Amino acid sequence: MSENGETKLTRTKRKWAEEGRFLTGDVATGHTAGRERLPPGQHLVKDWPVLDLGVEPEVPLDRWRLEITGFARNRTTLGWAAFTALPQHDLITDIHCVTTWSRYDNPWRGVLTRDLLALAEPMAEAEAGFVLLESADGYTTNLPLDDFAAADAVLATHWNGAPLTREHGGPMRLVVPHLYFWKSAKWLTRIEFIGRDRAGFWERNGYHMRGDPWAEERYSD
Ligand SMILES: Nc1nc2c(c(=O)[nH]1)N[C@H]1C(S)=C(S)[C@@H](COP(=O)(O)O)O[C@H]1N2
Ligand SMILES: [Mo]
């Protein structure tokens, strides 16, 4: 790798560490001071709608696998025991779905994407600027590595103190609170580090490549 690449990686890691400053104790909330909590065009709901492509795969824990592949130094496949042996964190974050509902204060428990990234060691930004996620129902979605690495992004196994239900993506789903919820892959099975952004399912069907709710990045034109 070029020296420039190493420098970039170091800088990225430092930035991640700085963003993690609000990780006080074991609970993090993603509310950013000075920004409206409810993004434009959203309305609050109290229930938790279920949205997916209609197939809700049953994934028994003894057959559960998480594959880490692409531009990473440690490409590997984790089973449930190895995955849940990673540090566990509790976070309370908001959900913003592109179909205009938002739901506040969802209590998650799981593994921070930070901790998974420390294990995977993605290569410098030039090689691994993005991630492509794949799920057991065939769903895919893409996002920038920096967004995936957000301090409050979690590979969640629990919601409100109980194991995540199958309809909401159990045994494990991603939660990236600062992007629209379609980026939060349910039944996640594969994380691929990629160099050039590659559209996932909804992104191929007109949704935005990034999906920032505060910028209303709903659709690509
Ligand atoms: N594997 C998978 N993940 C998925 C989806 C899907 O169809 N399959 N739908 C996405 C969309 S569009 C939304 S809004 C949320 C819905 O999550 P929920 O059903 O827990 O509310 O999951 C996202 N993650
Ligand atoms: Mo969605």
From TrEMBL:
Pfam families to which the protein is assigned, alphabetical: Oxidored_molyb
Domain called Oxidoreductase molybdopterin-binding: residue spans: 58-202
Name of this chain's protein: Sulfite oxidase-like oxidoreductase
Organism name: Haematobacter missouriensis
The organism's taxonomic lineage, starting at the top: Bacteria, Pseudomonadati, Pseudomonadota, Alphaproteobacteria, Rhodobacterales
